[in-house]
Amino acid sequence: PSAPLYSPARVRQLLTQHGLRPTKSLGQNFLIDGNILRAIAEAGLSGGPAQGTPVLEIGPGLGVLTREIATRGAQVTALEKDEKLRPVLAETLAGLDVQVVWGDALDFDYASLPPGTRVVANLPYYITGVLLSRFMHAPAIVSATVLVQKEVGQRLASKPGDDNYGFLSALAALYGSVRHVRDVPKGAFFPAPDVTSSVIRLDFDRSAPLPPRELLKFIESALGHRRKTLRNNLRMIGHQGAAIDAALEALGLRPDVRAEDVPLDTLRDLAGRLGVLG
Ligand code: SAM
């Protein structure tokens, strides 16, 4: 056939032919822009040989991004929840070395992935945050190149003191580094989503030990209630006022400092002083 698979005409035709409509509750916004597809695949596979690299894709949908990755030689596992897409993927991925796993990405065992796995995906936006934290906690995953809402991309890349700095930003910094690859306009999708998107690449530092669970919980609670003081948030999780005051003072922090203005290393020191790290 003449037009590429991702062209708006082919995408509509594929859906009609299989009697399907994009399901909003599953975050189905399909990519229809070849330049964006190539940019995601390239950013996801750069920095190593594509040939044989294990890639995990969440939500292959109609298979357009999957094809883009698989034709570059990567070993793709594609995890899709919507079983109605079975006949579509059988058609669009025919002849390619792709393993489609039917199931929910929230139930997937990320520990079963081969070491060195890269995630490349146009994520279902309703579960972006949970999925990103699953990727971070899975030592086999070395990077995640994902399409997310622009606002989530900004949060991921924020530093302490920035407007939208929060737990997700802290997590990203704890596990590695974040790069903004490019913005993606609404028109690159069918149907068009409500907001602009961004391609983000997260690289995880797997030589460092995973942060202890206690530290993650501490940081999450500290950053939990924005606009409240750090002192107040720590009181809420049971720390004594006097102990907090002493620790803040020892670290040169004002008693009314807010957690989102405190550097991560200082929060870690604070956790240590409050006996959180055992
Ligand atoms: N990769 C395709 C593309 O770029 O055109 C589709 C991306 S679409 C934004 C998100 C995909 O994730 C859909 O195919 C949807 O069915 C799938 N999905 C939604 N929730 C899921 C879940 N919990 N587990 C696995 N896949 C899911």
From TrEMBL:
<dbReference type="GO" id="GO:0003723">
    <property type="term" value="F:RNA binding"/>
</dbReference>
<feature type="binding site">
    <location>
        <position position="80"/>
    </location>
    <ligand>
        <name>S-adenosyl-L-methionine</name>
    </ligand>
</feature>
<comment type="function">
    <text>Specifically dimethylates two adjacent adenosines (A1518 and A1519) in the loop of a conserved hairpin near the 3'-end of 16S rRNA in the 30S particle. May play a critical role in biogenesis of 30S subunits.</text>
</comment>
<keyword id="KW-0694">RNA-binding</keyword>
<feature type="binding site">
    <location>
        <position position="31"/>
    </location>
    <ligand>
        <name>S-adenosyl-L-methionine</name>
    </ligand>
</feature>
<comment type="similarity">
    <text>Belongs to the class I-like SAM-binding methyltransferase superfamily. rRNA adenine N(6)-methyltransferase family. RsmA subfamily.</text>
</comment>
<protein>
    <recommendedName>
        <fullName>Ribosomal RNA small subunit methyltransferase A</fullName>
        <ecNumber>2.1.1.182</ecNumber>
    </recommendedName>
</protein>
<dbReference type="InterPro" id="IPR001737">
    <property type="entry name" value="KsgA/Erm"/>
</dbReference>
<keyword id="KW-0963">Cytoplasm</keyword>
<dbReference type="GO" id="GO:0052908">
    <property type="term" value="F:16S rRNA (adenine(1518)-N(6)/adenine(1519)-N(6))-dimethyltransferase activity"/>
</dbReference>
<dbReference type="InterPro" id="IPR020598">
    <property type="entry name" value="rRNA_Ade_methylase_Trfase_N"/>
</dbReference>
<feature type="domain" description="Ribosomal RNA adenine methylase transferase N-terminal">
    <location>
        <begin position="36"/>
        <end position="206"/>
    </location>
</feature>
<keyword id="KW-0489">Methyltransferase</keyword>
<feature type="binding site">
    <location>
        <position position="29"/>
    </location>
    <ligand>
        <name>S-adenosyl-L-methionine</name>
    </ligand>
</feature>
<keyword id="KW-0698">rRNA processing</keyword>
<dbReference type="Pfam" id="PF00398">
    <property type="entry name" value="RrnaAD"/>
</dbReference>
<keyword id="KW-0808">Transferase</keyword>
<dbReference type="GO" id="GO:0005829">
    <property type="term" value="C:cytosol"/>
</dbReference>
<dbReference type="InterPro" id="IPR029063">
    <property type="entry name" value="SAM-dependent_MTases_sf"/>
</dbReference>
<feature type="binding site">
    <location>
        <position position="59"/>
    </location>
    <ligand>
        <name>S-adenosyl-L-methionine</name>
    </ligand>
</feature>
<dbReference type="InterPro" id="IPR020596">
    <property type="entry name" value="rRNA_Ade_Mease_Trfase_CS"/>
</dbReference>
<feature type="binding site">
    <location>
        <position position="122"/>
    </location>
    <ligand>
        <name>S-adenosyl-L-methionine</name>
    </ligand>
</feature>
<keyword id="KW-0949">S-adenosyl-L-methionine</keyword>
<dbReference type="InterPro" id="IPR023165">
    <property type="entry name" value="rRNA_Ade_diMease-like_C"/>
</dbReference>
<feature type="binding site">
    <location>
        <position position="104"/>
    </location>
    <ligand>
        <name>S-adenosyl-L-methionine</name>
    </ligand>
</feature>
<dbReference type="InterPro" id="IPR011530">
    <property type="entry name" value="rRNA_adenine_dimethylase"/>
</dbReference>
